[in-house]
UniProtKB/TrEMBL annotation, chains A, B:
It holds the Pfam family Voltage_CLC. SMART domains: CBS. It is found in: Membrane. Its main location: membrane. This is Chloride channel protein. Keywords: CBS domain, Chloride, Chloride channel, Ion channel, Ion transport, Membrane, Repeat, Transmembrane, Transmembrane helix, Transport, Voltage-gated channel. The chain crosses the membrane at residues 21-41, 53-71, 83-102, 108-125, 145-166, 225-246, 253-272, 284-307, 314-333.
């Protein structure tokens, strides 16, 4: 049972908004980046944007920021143990020393280009690995568990084994930190070294991700690491990041990429940093930006998140430049990691833009039949039959004579609402009588969207054969304002409507008035390239993964 | 003559995108806030949002940031005179001393509440003053000039006269700055005071806006100003800001509000700041945020702009809280200042949300006739007649028999394109022959959108009486995929379609197939409250400036 006032949120739109705000809140709390959280949610999560949503997301993260700040304040006195560690800025690299000049541009641009390539490769490998994991997971829970266990063991071996190959480094003399440190945190891990030495690779592996990132970002530590150690650490975190994702374990994308990117930045700094005046710590920050730009392909939100993580506004022009370059480079190869994940999950994710071949197709080229429609007052048996035999979620309601002069489109009714009607069994005896106030028999609650997994199913509703012969008046429960397009509408423009307005069903009207008042219904699936390619084998996939059609007009061929 | 490659931008959509990117670049350069610029442009300028636009705006401001940073570098050596002053952060208030606790919340919330009230009052006064200025300006250029001259003289008198009422303050002993200063800049202006004294009000008035803001934001200067001076300065800048806008002079909104807000913050700090541990300089920053939130009603972008201006990430939770409160308070009174300006200019600005009464109306309730349609092959004389007698910018093209079995909607043709056709005089003799390759006679250039003020007019096109009797084939020039709605569509949902997809024309289709294939055309003007109220006097304006209708169904009344 849900709280009474919560029922206002029990519809698709509010639920979608809540998901967006929730992800904004998550980013805001995890990275202590409230503005970054808003932008992340809008750029990645939400497929379409309303100013009300911006305001709601901002409200959410502002609350998160205030509560977070209050808790940090409260925990500063050590009341919360390890939870209370750290301030509002996670990796503070504020520095007055940040100066960069024209000579720094070539190394930074190089960093961006290779960051883009590595980022798109990251997505490519992740895709392959996830497909493999999906195949294994399908075999059963045991396999799923064994897979997770195997990867965990391999990861542990890797993390503990790799530091053995690194040689010991003598402790720096001018550091304030303990060197070597043996405790649970510290920049200079002793591992298997002597008294005044430390193992740099162990220092990277045997810390939390946060501490390692802080370590890599820190300034004035150009000589703290061997190049070989950084290379090993980069390669290990790159591939472990890919192999850890998608297991039956809690793991993420953002922090691994941030970490790998920091190592990548350090590596580039060691290779070509001598050309530039920049500190290796700043190269690490830029490396994170480059890999995030190459993998996530977000621009504004990554920019703000990095700004909020590092508190270094002076670096902003360089961060923007790196993001720009890595995104452009990576976009030439494949799509961003979130689209990839959504596609792997099998959700019909609509691209934000129309592919070129869609301009050549009209809506009628992709609509597939047969179309199931209901009359305004429909026989219960027919509804049950249609619901049982099709998987459609929306049905046009058409008024036939004698209720109208000619067949007229009345609106669209949802499967969910039909199920509510059938369960209530508020039927009428004949198809001529109308129950204008039928909607009064229902409360708002009954039409509220149920939680996922709690949907009604038609099989669960039992109706007697007498009830199946009765009628139900659909008029009060029909959406009288469905969005519509003409069958001659270009598919590209229909896609824009679908995306921008956030639709689930789009009714297709006939061009000529002599036909039925509605000729089809478009859903997300109808816009999927696989569906369109199935219908139109003339379309071919080009080498560059974009389906192209050239000047050919398919509608005239078919 | 335009560059050849520029013609790709000569259409409505690209031009709109360019305006958005341009404003982003402007904010980025003026406030050295590249990310703030992107968000400002998206939140304020662009009425609808596409991910491609976000990317373009980001690209623009990244370029601005890099060029800006390079120029700052170049100018640092004094090569650019006064131009080269200042770094990437305009009002740097970076401070490790920023600590705030629960006790600071009440003063900050108070600041937000009154900031919201003052912000909405700012908009209210600005509206009244601009209406007055418009009345005066309409009388002619002389009046316009006299108005600007009068206000300028009054402003000068005010700025020079007011410091006389302030008393002198003894110079602080621990400052590094010259006190009193007599040069063109400096925090402690001597004005009419003695050798070791300064006039605090003169120090505020006799500086550039930037220097004054920096002065007000600076920390550790709680005793630099008398409360009376701050009060006078606040009142003066509040009202001078309102009176200066809309004159035939270059003036702005953002900086005056920022300045006034800083003074407001200082004032609040002096009144109730003793309750809190916050520095008066930080109160000034929060005051700017409060007044910006109350007047502009932007959240995320103001937040980022203030962050980029002041480089103080630790303040972010407080800035967000203040923005939240002032926006909520101000929204209870009136609309944001940009909507207000757009409305004053007479542009048909569509709100981002549908008013409650729109849900009660259907599209057919607001469409006004008579509808002008063209046949697929239309007589030139008829086109000229229609273009001369109506001001419409788009016309449905309907194919009548014998070209189709029954009247069929073919598409929508724009006035601009009809004018191009008429000017080219590529006519045909009879209405039965069709010129399928007529579009080949035209180049892309000819249909390119002209610059503002350069549009063709129907009066400029001269046609002989023989030509008027000829025909023109509209098919190749018609947009075959116009967006359409049914006449029963709720007005609220049509508005959402209009807004989200960024339309100019929306064709209204009949519900019953026995009527003409198109029954009307919706433009922005049809969604304006004035238009709807004119058609439906039953709707009444409620006290709270929202037109409400309650449970009444207007469509059933009419």
């Amino acid at each position: 049972m849900t709280c009474k006032w919560l029922r206002y949120f029990k519809n698709d739109r509010d639920r979608r908004d809540l998901v967006t705000c929730g992800s904004a809140a998550g980013i805001a709390a995890a990275f202590r980046a409230p503005v970054g959280g808003v932008l992340f949610a809008l750029e990645t999560v939400s497929s379409w944007w309303r100013s009300a949503l911006l305001w709601r997301a901002f409200f959410t993260t502002a609350m998160v920021a205030v509560v977070l700040r209050a808790l940090i304040d409260f925990c500063k006195s050590g009341k919360c143990g390890l939870f209370g560690k750290g301030g509002l800025i996670m990796f503070d690299v504020t520095a007055d020393y940040v100066t960069y000049h024209l000579v720094d541009l070539p190394p930074v641009i190089t960093l961006g280009v290779f960051g883009g390539i590595l980022g798109s490769l990251y997505n490519f490998f992740l895709d392959k690995v996830l497909r493999l994991y999906n195949l294994i997971s399908e075999k059963g829970k045991t396999y799923k568990f064994l897979l997770a266990a195997t990867v965990t063991v391999c990861t542990s071996c890797c993390l503990f084994g790799l530091p053995w190959i690194a040689s010991c480094k003598p402790c720096p003399t001018d550091t304030e930190e303990a060197c070597p440190s043996i405790g649970r945190s510290g920049n200079f891990k002793k591992f298997q070294c002597g008294m005044n030495e430390y193992n740099d690779l162990a220092s990277l592996f045997f810390n939390t991700n946060d501490d390692t990132i802080r370590n890599l970002y820190s300034a004035g530590t150009d000589d703290e690491f061997h190049m070989s150690s950084i290379l090993v650490f980069f390669a290990a975190s790159y591939f472990l990041g890919i192999f850890s994702y998608g297991l039956a374990l809690p793991s993420g994308l953002f922090v691994p990429v941030l970490l790998t990117g920091a190592a990548y930045g350090r590596l580039v700094a060691m290779l070509i940093g001598s050309q530039s005046t920049l500190d290796h710590g700043l190269f690490a920050v830029l490396g994170s930006a480059a890999l995030l730009g190459g993998s996530m392909r977000m621009t504004v939100s990554v920019c703000v998140v990095i700004l909020e993580l590092t508190n270094n506004l002076l670096m902003l022009p360089l961060v923007m430049l790196v993001l720009l370059i890595s995104k452009v480079v990576a976009d030439a190869f494949n799509t961003n990691v979130y689209d990839l994940l959504v596609r792997l999950k099998g959700f019909p994710h609509l691209e934000g833009y129309a592919e070129p071949y869609m301009r050549q197709l009209s809506v009628s080229d992709v609509v597939t039949g047969p179309l199931q429609t209901f009359s305004g007052i429909e026989k219960v048996g027919h509804i049950v039959h249609v619901l049982k035999t099709t998987g459609h979620n929306g049905f046009p309601v058409v008024d036939e004579p004698p209720f109208s002069d000619s067949p007229t489109l009345y609106g669209l009714i949802l499967r969910d609402h039909l199920l509510v009607l059938l369960r209530k069994k508020d039927f009428i005896r004949s198809c001529t009588s109308s129950t204008l106030n039928a909607s009064k028999h229902f409360t708002h609650d009954e039409f509220a969207k149920r939680g996922s997994g709690k949907q009604d199913r038609i099989e669960d509703i039992e109706l007697s054969s007498e009830e199946l012969e009765m009628f139900v008046d659909l008029h009060p429960f029909t959406n009288k304002s469905p969005y519509t397009v003409l069958e001659t509408m270009s598919l590209a423009k229909a896609l824009i409507l679908f995306r921008e307005v956030g639709l689930r069903h789009l009714l297709v009207l006939p061009k000529s008035s002599k036909r039925a008042p509605v000729v089809g219904i478009l859903t997300r699936h109808d816009f999927m390239p696989e569906h369109i390619l199935g219908l139109h084998p003339f379309l071919f996939k080009s080498r560059w993964k974009k389906v192209r059609l050239g000047k050919l007009n398919v509608t005239s061929i078919l």
